[in-house]
């Protein structure tokens, strides 16, 4: 079963309440969308979402994508991880971090799942 833990700091301006995985459970050969849901304390004009994923000690994903501008309030950024058919079966662990337009971390979560 996929899980997550908050790895950010109390100073982070995006308070993550939940992380969902689609599909759940993750499936080889399909893209996995990870959605962070919570509250953004201050508006952002952009930024970056970075996804790092490891199988044991081997890094299998290290990708960044732009974050769109967002107003303060409810916020649900997403990242998509390509789960190839030839990935080894087993447990994967990673991190999803968000930084704003000033390169200041606004949230960080650790993710784990099994394929």
The chain-level mean pLDDT equals: 96
Helicity level, as a percent range? under 10%
Number of helices: 0
Gyration radius from CA atoms, angstroms: 14 Å
Rough outline:
elongated
- Beta fraction of the residues? over 45%
Distance between the termini: 10 Å
> Could you describe the largest sheet, including whether it forms a barrel?
5 strands, antiparallel
List the helices and strands and how they pair.
Elements: E1 3-6, E2 14-22, E3 31-40, E4 47-55, E5 58-67, E6 73-75, E7 78-82, E8 91-100, E9 105-114
Antiparallel strand pairs: 1-9, 2-3, 3-6, 3-7, 4-5, 4-8, 8-9
Verbal overview:
There is one protein chain. The protein is mostly beta strands and 115 residues long. Helix content is 0%, strand content 61%. The protein has strands spanning 3-6, 14-22, 31-40, 47-55, 58-67, 73-75, 78-82, 91-100, 105-114. The strands form 2 sheets. The chain has a 5-stranded antiparallel sheet with strand order 1-9-8-4-5, with no helix packed on it. Strands 2, 3, 6 and 7 form a 4-stranded antiparallel sheet that branches. Strand 8 and strand 9 (105-114) form a beta hairpin.
What's the gist of this structure?
Helices cover 0% and strands 61% of the residues. With 115 residues, the chain is mainly beta.
List keywords for this structure.
115 residues; mainly beta; 5-stranded antiparallel β-sheet; 0% helix; elongated
